[in-house]
Amino acid sequence: MRVRWLAGRSFTAVTGLLLAAGAFAAPGQPAASAARCQAWTGAQPASPGTLDNALNSVAVLSPCDVWAAGFDVSSGGGFQTLIEHWNGFSWAQVDSPDPGSGNKLPQQRPRLLPVQRLGSRLLQRRNQQQDPDRALERHHLEDGAEP
Amino acid sequence: MPSPSPGNAFNDLNGVRVVSASDAWAVGDYANGGTSKKTLILHWDGAAWKQVISPSPGGSGNDNYLFAAAATSAHDVWAVGEIVTSTGIRTLILRWNGSKWARVASPDPGGPAKDNRLNAVAVTSTSGAWAVGSYENGTGQRNIVLHWDGRRWVHVATPGLGTSNGLSGVAATSASTVWAVGFFGTTVPLQALALHCC
């Protein structure tokens, strides 16, 4: 099996050609061929956060109906839910609730973000349990600095 | 719904996969006080959750974690995670063949002395599965994408966006409909990342 992973932005021209040729299947249709799959590439998902953005999970319903969920963080704000949808042509951010309140980040929080890259609360908690060097991060969490 | 908690210090469930109304799997880890963490796998038979014996190959002093599961049938289930040792973190993949869980060899792209993590798994057939995560390369994190070709897990190259990247989720509906998501970037802010194959 020939395996080729694609990160969309390099294939915009190819996408355009295949779009013109009607290569995309309509939502709900069976899985596309490998050639069509390569045409799914569009721009990367939106990253609205000015400090951090990540997607933690994805669900594929069809080639033209994909959902991804994660978070974004902006200066002066807390962690925001981030949900994006792939319609077969492009990713679009979809409004999502942020039920947590009082989740403003301390000033020093942003510089810690790159240390614990994977973003999900599960992974953050796991890292903090495993690595004493990340005690500072745990301190912030226990201070209620996060939702 | 009650579920077993075999550890007296830690009991964590991190992932679940439903095969049918009477067949579901939940995976995680557990530990007794003062001992290393072991893999925890629970099975739903339609009436109750029961623990199923699973390997914890890390050995004494090393922690074993499972974070996700995927299945094609009642006789073909995968679980992925990691083994945390004093010298590094190694990928961990287990497979259920209908009667028992067993470890399947998996590569550590960063080498055994670096951190190699698997966070998610997706299955398209008995001869097609994907596991994703991240590994350390000395300067930052890099995507891990492993592909099961029916015989072995192979590390697959992915676009190297930014100086740091990692994958947290993967989903597939067929061999040609596979998406993985995570982050990438060189400086703050790091960006949301979506990759697809093939």
Describe the protein's architecture and organization.
- The complex is a heterodimer of chains A (147) and B (198).
- Helices cover 24% and strands 23% of the residues of chain A.
- Chain A has 147 residues and is α+β, with helices and mostly antiparallel strands.
- Chain A has one domain.
- In chain A, a hairpin with a 5-residue loop joins strand 3 (65-73) and strand 4.
- Residues 8-42 and 104-147 of chain A have low confidence and may be disordered.
- With 198 residues, chain B is mostly beta strands.
- Chain B has a single domain (10-197), classed as Glycosyl hydrolase domain, family 43 (Tachylectin-2, Chain A, 5 Propeller).
- Chain B is built from no helices and 15 strands.
- Chain B has strands at 10-20, 23-31, 38-44, 49-51, 63-73, 76-84, 89-96, 101-103, 116-125, 128-136, 141-148, 153-155, 164-174, 177-185, 191-197.
- In chain B, the strands form 4 sheets. Chain B has a 4-stranded antiparallel beta sheet, with no helix packed on it. In chain B, strands 5-6-7-8 form a 4-stranded antiparallel beta sheet, with no helix packed on it.
- In chain B, a hairpin with a 4-residue loop joins strand 6 (76-84) and strand 7 (89-96).
- The radius of gyration of chain B is 17 Å and the shape is globular.
- The N and C termini of chain B lie far apart (40 Å).
- The mean pLDDT of chain B is 94.
- Chains A and B meet through strand 1, helix 2, strand 2, strand 3 and strand 4 of A and strand 5, strand 9, strand 11, strand 13 and strand 14 of B.
List the helices and strands and how they pair.
The complex is a heterodimer of chains A (147) and B (198).
Chain A: E1 6-7, H1 12-20, H2 34-38, E2 52-62, E3 65-73, E4 79-86, E5 91-94, H3 109-112, H4 121-130, H5 135-142
Antiparallel strand pairs in A: 2-3, 3-4, 4-5
Chain B: E1 10-20, E2 23-31, E3 38-44, E4 49-51, E5 63-73, E6 76-84, E7 89-96, E8 101-103, E9 116-125, E10 128-136, E11 141-148, E12 153-155, E13 164-174, E14 177-185, E15 191-197
